[in-house]
Amino acid sequence: MKRLTVFSIKSFAGPFVVTFFISMVMLIMQFTWVYIDDLMGKGLSVGVIIELMFYVSAGLIPLALPLAILLSSIMTLGNLAENNELTALKSSGLSLFRILRPLTQTVILIAIATFFFSNYVIPVANLKWHTIIFDIQETKVGMLLTPGSYSKEIDGYAIKVKSGKNNTFYGITIHDYTNPNVLKTVKSDSGTVYKGADGKYLLFHLSNGIVHEELQAQAPVFTNQGQPFHSGDFRPSRTTQFKAATYKMELVGFDLNKSDEELFKNDYEMLNVFQINEAKDSLQRKQNKILSDFGKTNLNSRPFNQSLSFAKLPKTGPAKKLKEAEEIQQLQSIPSKVITLSSLTKQERIAAVNAAIVSARSMKISAEEQAQFVDAFRTNYGQFQIEFHRKFALSGAIIVLFFVGAPLGAIVRKGGFGAPVVIAALLFMVYFVLFSIGQNLAMSGVLSPFWGMWLPTAVLIPIACILMVAAANDLGVFDRKLWRYLLTFGRRR
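Request: output the structure for the sequence above.
Response:
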């Protein structure tokens, strides 16, 4: 049995390492494609790129593992079946479940390690690579400028520099088109560029330059004698020289991620399951308090409820004088009978109706705003719940995909990178589509976060059971004997 364990693990280890590496390369390429605009042509050092890819790779490991487990299990059992080694093991009296026991134990250990990795390592990795992306997009604003060519990344401006690196440039030319009535050009010998503290403005600290402003062509003007004072192509202009100046540009049209380590370190992607639980409890308490305060505020805004509140004030002590105040006495004096509109004069009725309409509209607007706030709050709370269940569902998916791939490899009896790759790609596509659907349904509130994250596993478990029964009894997936066997719960007839 020890030889079987070593043989099984050796047969599984090779394909697993290869497929895991291939999966990681594919996922890293996908990440690079998404952030290609931030990474290419920005003069980043090799060290920064390597550090970024290192942290990104750590965050992608749990995504590559399900595909690697699925593909390697199909290849391993496919190779055993193709070389008749699986048949020989069965002929010796070993069942498929006994043959798969060493691999099952190995996959369970991988799933457990994946959970701890995604719970403790990935949050840190996500925080690190988000911080690096922030540094590229936010801090190094000088990367917006490419020496020798115009940069139009910021709406309303065309900026050209002759030379420079980091945040210091020489031969700066700025064309400002933000005001359609004025053509403004700024030229400077040198300058430094940096970002405002609030992240809304790009600032140029310029030295030794000129500002040339030219208005649009003015309408022709005539003297009293009818002679033209100036023609219609006259353009008023002025030129100003400076030794030092600061030019401010609003960052419109250049969408940057306004985030740093302090801002998103408490985001749901940066927390482990224990921290997520604490965050969920805190959000729930905050939501309950906001709803309670909103209800109390609306109740206390009504004169009747105000009078009831004042009526409960103590009759002795510091509150006695407050209780006896004239305005409080007015609030406490509740009419002995109901006041109807018919008992009021026409002007009083109009005033009462208008006051009621204004009050109703105000309450409606307040209620709508509160509803939007609560919806946003619940969406945020749902994201924490989704991330909580995702960490567990990922480990469960690894185990289930193994029990889908292993019997499937025994059934198709094909090893290598031919048929197993095609089959694994199709199955993983099904898994990924189910995962995306479940996540979207959970975020929209159609499904609970639990069922949204466990949807792929719940769908794949019956498939895994059918394939395991078929492989254990040497039956085809579409064999009538298999379905008769399943419908009779394994009883022989």
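The chain has three domains: 2-139+383-487, 154-250, 280-373.
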